[in-house]
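dumping this here before i forget
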Amino acid sequence: MLLAVCVAVFAVTSLLPGDAVTATAGAQADPQRLAELRARAGLDRPAWQRLADWFGGAVRGDLGHSLVDGGAVAPLLGDRLAASLLIALPSWLLAVSLGTVAAILVARAPASRASHAGAVLAAAVVAIPDTALVALLVLLLAVTLGWLPAVSLVPAGGWGLDRPEILVLPVLALTLPAAAWTARMLLGPAADVYQRRFVQDALLRGVSATRCATRHVLPHLTAPLAQAAAVLAGALLAGTAVVESLLGYPGLGQLLATSVAARDTPVVQAAALMSAAVILVAMTGADAVAARVARRSGAAR
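structure:
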């Protein structure tokens, strides 16, 4: 799967007009100079050979060097990944928690007006494009109320925790649609659990709604919750590209966007490989949880 991702990303990047040399030096530069720079960067070799060399180095732990500044890709990728995790991990935890609670609240009383309003609100938030959501949050929280900075610029030589207030807007922009999506994914399974007889009997015996949700409903949502959380982990890491680019936050997503613009293929390859690895690990873990829950359910029967 990782090999297929690398081949697909390399092919798509190669189809873009221009290359790293023309993106850096400009298309109007001297043709002889451009040819010399391409030869120095190895861009005069066949595409399959460049891909094979990069993948061979990646297997050995060498992700190559940037075609723009010549720096090693691995340290750059590590720094940017750490910055992205600083906003993606809290967003993931909040989205899973808030989405699960919202799904349980809506499923508990599906015919009520509040439940209908919650379902409509979740659908509306999911439908808002990332660019529009970021713009709305900036307009409300930064421009109108003045509570937060409009951009998430990290101090020179520091990182996000040096100014925690710059992390709030990116986290909110990632959390809101992710929580709404999680709620929509869990709403159906939660409603099914609430219709089961043991849950109805518990409610009739006077068990509180909170205790019923935590002891009877939530355990039966383990498998769908694990799968939704796994998909969400990859989606959030990929979704940082738009949020980071719009807010000026120096994370993995912004690095990927700028590298695509500069046709810096080794950096694009490494960033895509990292994102694909996170998704594969998360999905494998979710499948393992779902299989274990299924085995336990079978044994209980």
